[in-house]
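A quick word before the example. In earlier lectures we treated sequence and structure as two separate objects. From today on, think of them as two lines of the same record. Here is UPF0545 protein C22orf39-like written that way.
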Amino acid sequence: MNELIQSEKKRRRERLQGHYGNTVWSQRKTPPENWNTPLPEHIQKEYEASYLNIKSKEMKGELPPTKDIFNYCVLM
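And the structure line, produced from the sequence above:
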C-alpha cells in the first residue's frame, strides 16, 4: 500500500512539474473580477442550439427525450 501511495505521489509530482515550474505566467490568487458576467449574445445564441443545452433541458424535464443517434455502434 505504501509503495502505491509513493508511486502516485511521484506520478502527480511529475505530471504537475511544468505547472509549478512555470516562470512565464504568474498564478492567480483570486478569480478575475468579472468571472461571472453574462456571456456575449452571440455565444448565448450558439449555446441554445448546442447538444449540451438540449440534453440538460431533457434531463430537467423541460424537453421531451429525443432519440440519440450517437449511442449506436455501427460497423461497416
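Notice the following. Helices lie at 2-15, 17-20, 41-48, 51-60. We will return to this example when we discuss secondary structure assignment.
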